[in-house]
Structures are given as C-alpha cells and as structure tokens.
Protein 1
Amino acid sequence: MQVSEQFIKDMPKIELHLHIEGSLEPELMFELAQRNEIALPFPDVEAVRRAYDFSNLQDFLDIYYQGMNVLRTEQDFYDLAWAYFERIAAQNVMHTEIFFDPQGHTERGVAFETVLNGLTSAMQDAEDDLGVTSKLIMCFLRHLSEEDAFKTLDEALPYKDKIIGVGLDSSEKGHPPSKFANVFAKAREEGFLIVAHAGEEGPPEYVVEALDILNVDRIDHGNRLLEDAALTERVVAEGKALTVCPLSNLKLCVVKDIHDHPLKKMLDLGLKATVNSDDPAYFGGYMNENFLAVAKALNLNADHLLTLTRNGIEASFLGDAEKSALFDRVDAFAQKAAA
Ligand code: ADE
Ligand code: ZN
C-alpha cells in the first residue's frame, strides 16, 4: 500500500548528506549580499531560481561556488545554518550530519575559524532550542590539489573536537579518490571518520578506490556502483551505507526521470541506502520533498520508508546510546502509524 503524504511528513528522519552552503536560499543570498554590500549578477530571487537549470554536476558547482561568495562573517554562517535547522526541525528531522567546504571560503579570505564558529553556534542553538542534534564533516574540494587539502586538514586540527569526519566533494570526473590517498590516511590517523562522494558521475572504479584507498565509513551517492555486480555484492556484504540524494540526481541529470531512480533497486539488493537532500536550495527540496518524490515515483511502502530512516540512524556517526534513543522514536512512530 502506498503511504500518505502525512506519513512521510510525520516520520522521524535523519539526514547524512547535506552541504550547508547548498542550503543557501535565494532570499537569504540577497539579504547577505545587501548586508555585505556585494553586487549579485541577478536582478531578483526569481532570476536566481531560473538560473538553477543544470545539465550536469559542473553546471551546478559553478553557480554554487558563486552563491557562497555572499558568506563573509560569523553571523552569515550562523544565519545560513540556523535557516537550515529551522526548516528541517519543521520536517521532523531528528539528527543531521552537515558537510562544509572550508576551501570555498578560505580561498576568498574568510578565516577557517569564522566559518566554524558560525556553524557550531547554530548547531548548539539547534540542539538547545529545536531539539535537532548534528555533527560536522569537513570536505576537501577534489578539483584542488592534495597539497591544498593537507593545508586545510592542518587548519582543522585545533578544532578536531568539533569536526567528526572528513569528506571529498566537488567535480568528480578526472579527480579520483586515489588523488587524495595521503591526506585521507593522515585524517584517519588523526581520528576523523571518512566519507567520500563516489559514483555520482564517476565510474564504479572510483567507488572501489573510496573503499580500498580512502577507507570510507560511508559512500556519498554511490549510484554507479550498480553497474558492477561484484562491487554491489561487496558493498552489500560490508554493510556500507550509501547517502543517496534523489532530487539532486534528477536536477544534475544523474537520472533522466525520477521514475528511473535506483533507490528501490538498491533496497531490494540489500544495499544500506538512505535518503538525503544534498543541496536543497538548489535542487528543489529538503528531506520531505525528497522522500515524497521517491515514494510516489517508485511506489514505496511504509516498510521501505521506515527501512530508509532506520538505515540513516545505523549509518550515522552517533554513539550507540544515541542511536538506540532514535530507533525508539522511529519504533514509536511506526507503532502509532500502524494502529
Ligand atoms: N558539492 C555540493 N554538492 C555536491 C555534489 N552533489 N557532488 C559533488 N560535490 C558537491
Ligand atoms: Zn553532495
């Protein structure tokens, strides 16, 4: 039986793949541009939204890096993250693990500390005032050099207690995980957990490298691993989670049509898939919209949806006691929904 829209809205959710810079809504972009006296190349928010028409990942990244230029002060980063937390709290997201791209800011002269302080203040307030918990994952931009990534890792070391993990994002094709083997080895030695975008646009071999060379704890996207049956079997056997982003895949033409999305196939194969929003301000939706789109297009039932949310808890970087409390909340929801 297909689930109702209300079931999806009410279901407790976990987000594990969210670029905080990708939650910058055009309205806030204009507000920050005005506050920081920055001229935008768009006359109004409608024109910004009209520009969000992408043929591939690079098309999007060009506009995404341009958008983050309005973020300058600690208050800007606070406001960005707070706006995201308010939205997801209203969507029953219990916990989120947030990516940030420090190199997108430090290369513009914004200090690492400015970014971190703004984000972590909002995270604390979100926990205190909205009851949403969160963790922070620092991503290296893969179109830059490994040397640049090492510099960023060094800058992060004094704040190690505030950053749970290290990830890899930006232009995938031509920038395989192996390019960053040394810096990820150092990050792992320093105690960071590891994730990497792999198999979004890049080939299955990049997923193999993420597993074998970077030693990832989760795979971000992972769509293209399905092209390799032996790799699929391996990822199932290892129980490694995939942070799948349906509306992102649609907007970046990773899938042609939402009805072609492989999420249900992933679940049927026993892959530990989760649903996430990636860059919600650019891709037309936060967690509810992503769940609604796939539930409708792929005819997902309540069990599928509960599995997706439970996979999120299991794959999160929370401790066992915290996970257990979240599982209880999902169980309580499931029981009430079935009654
Ligand atoms: N940075 C922000 N969103 C991204 C995505 N979907 N893939 C790679 N890098 C990104
Ligand atoms: Zn992403």
Protein 2
Amino acid sequence: MSVQTYSENLNVLTQTQLVIKEALAKLGFGSEMYELLKEPLRVLTVRIPIRMDDGTVKVFTGYRAQHNDAVGPTKGGIRFHPEVTEDEVKALAIWMSLKCGIAGLPYGGGKGGIICEPREMSFRELERLSRGYVRAISQLVGPTKDIPAPDVYTNSQYMAWMMDEYSRIREYDSPGFITGKPLVLGGSLGRDSATARGVTIAIEEAAKAKGMALAGSRVVVQGFGNAGGYLAKFMHDKGALVVGISDAYGGLHDPNGLDIDYLLDRRDSFGTVSKLFKNTITNQDILTLDCDILVPAAIENQITSQNAAAIKAKIIVEAANGPTTLQATRMLTDRGVLLIPDIIANAGGVIVSYFEWVQNNQGLYWTEQEVDRRLQEIMEQSFASVYETAKLRKIDMRLAAYMVGVRRMAEACQLRGWV
Ligand code: NAD
C-alpha cells in the first residue's frame, strides 16, 4: 500500500509524533498546530520518598503528563512499572487525547506513571506510594482538571487509596477525582471489564469487515491481566478457541483451546499464571502462533519488523497501548492483515471511566445494561468512522484513527485562539 518506511529505533513518542504530523497535514492543518500538539502542554516530574517496611527510605520518580485541555479536562491512567519513562508517559497521554477524540468524550489526554517494581513491594508499601504520588501531583489534578484511572499494575484498590488521599487533602468527598474505583466508593458497574468489552466489540466489527465468524475462530492473547484476562474469557464465551495466552514470564499454547476459566482461577493479582506450568513458550513465540485473531494485551513494541512477517493472524486488535511499531503496521497492512489500532480498540476503558465520572458528578448510578448499551453504541460508531476514513483515503487504520482522533482537538485549539 505504501512505500514509506520507518526506522525501528524510534521510541514510542517519536513514532506517535510522526503519525500526528501526517494526520494533521492530511486534514489541512499547518505546522503551528503540529508544534502545539506534538508534546503535552504540561509534564510534572515528582520524587516521592517512601518509608519501606524495613525502616529504610526509598525515593521513587513519578510523572504526570497533560497533553491538551482545549476540549475539556485531561484524563488517563497511572502505571506502576520498572520501565516507565517520561517519553512513554508523554506518548500515552497523547494516545489518550486521540482515544477521547475518536469516542467523542469531552476530555483531552493525560497519563501518569511511577518507576517501581510493584511485584516486589508489600501491600502497605504500595498504599504509601499511591498516597505519596497523589500528594505530589495534587495541585495539578482534580475532577475538573485531570482525572486519573488504573493502568498496568494498578487496580481499583490503588484508586481507592488515591481517592481517599485526594479527598483528605481537599477536605471534601471527591469521587470524581479518579475512575476505576471499587463500586462502594463510587465506581461504575462494568468498569472492571470495560476495556475487554470494548476490545470484544472491536473484534466483532473487524470480523464482520473480514467476513469471518467469531465462533470457532482461533484467538491468541498476549498478556493476562485486566485487559487480556477478561478478553480471553469473553472470546471463550463467544465460542472462539483461545489457543494461546501469556504473561510477563511466558506463554501457554493448546491448539485445541485452553481452559480459560481454570487459568483465570489460578492467576495472581499481577496477571501471572504461566509460572505454574512446565512446557511454557516465550512471549515472542506466542505472537507467531497459528491463529485467526491476535490480541496483544500487555506492553509496547511487541510486534516489530523483526516478527511481522511471521505473524499468521488475519486480524490484529491492539488491546495494549502501542504494541505494534509503525514499520510493522505498514508491513502487516500491506499483507492485507486488518490491524485495529489501540486508540480505537482499547477505548472501552476510558469510555466507561467517562460514564463513571458522569455518574459521580450527577450522583445517580446506572445499571450495567445501561453502561453496556452506551459502550456498544460508542464503540460501533468509533469503529465505523475510522474504518470508513481508512477505506475512503486508502490509508492504514492507524493513520485513519489519528485523523479522526486529532481533528476535534485541533479545531478546539483554533476556536480558543491558541493557533
Ligand atoms: P495488568 O497489569 O492488569 O496486566 C498486564 C499483563 O501483561 C499481565 O498479565 C503481565 O504479566 C503482562 N506483562 C507485563 N509485562 C510483560 C512483558 N514484558 N511481556 C509480556 N507480558 C507482560 O494491565 P492491563 O490493565 O491489563 O493493561 C495491559 C495493556 O492494556 C497496557 O498496554 C495498558 O495500557 C492497556 N490498557 C489497559 C486499560 C485498562 O482499563 N486496564 C485500558 C486501556 C489500555
């Protein structure tokens, strides 16, 4: 389809900037708009001293990035991971802006991260770190400024600690400060599984577009945490055969279909299950297994020019953020693989986070059916607008998604007189 090639040595932020530039140019915006949107408006770096259980003090580095607030307050998750970098957080914040743009949510993108190894920290140390992070960023965030949520290695318990800390600082109950909370603290029904529900809808739409039946299809999922775990379960319940799953330590493969309920029962709170088995395969092997649908649901840069040619799936749906490099996107698209990019596929999380925030603000809570109905409607519309743009412009789905995602934010910047 395209002759353009991309270096594989570019980090996620540089790759994102290249596509934003191309999308803005195709939409007819000038270089000033690109200068504004290529980086977040604000990035705060914080150092958080935490008393560890053994009495020593450890100082952690964290970030909070706010990409653009022309459309509304910024919104995005907080990641606890040893490989968090400032550039990664910036790219994740930009992707959040694009997701909100595609889904039509009244937000810009934000993201946070702390460089830490939560798998080696105690429950109480993680609580102190969560609270310390909120104290460090409290001036920058709030229910009408920037609204955090869970991401890799954080969950509803971390959100509860963070909401409690913020409410104490502000001296009033602030459920709308953060989403992904437990139900009793103002969480939304359906939020836990929302990302995977959205990915499931994206898979259904992609299968329709390819004329492929979901029942009986063979699915591989890399990552078995919140996104990957629920997704494997939903695929299994829809009659697909989940032939491979993996976590940070390795993968499991059965061409006749894995017993997903059994594996979910044995998974730990960090989404690890493979350690319990012998004869595991590697995370690289999992990506090239014989299957119809491949769902990367773990971390960035997993599908690259090194393995793209060996991938056998006909549909790739990015539950993770940034799992496929630009060069691999081009190689796969040229081969006719339908790749549904992260900023459409995993938007279910932010869509239901938005519903949670709306419910918190109005103090009126919805049924799960109401949440699911609205999620389905937004996901189908998002898919259709990006798919149509890709067809009409003869471009890959990623560039099409960036075009749909960036347009409203760019227009809002113009109308505010920023550019
Ligand atoms: P999680 O912490 O619940 O699970 C992460 C999973 O990835 C675990 O199974 C872990 O073992 C695995 N993993 C970690 N490092 C790995 C590695 N190096 N190789 C292979 N597997 C590895 O996280 P999650 O919330 O499921 O997020 C997964 C992806 O989905 C991330 O890219 C995240 O940004 C994206 N996402 C999540 C949400 C959400 O609501 N949870 C929303 C949108 C996007």
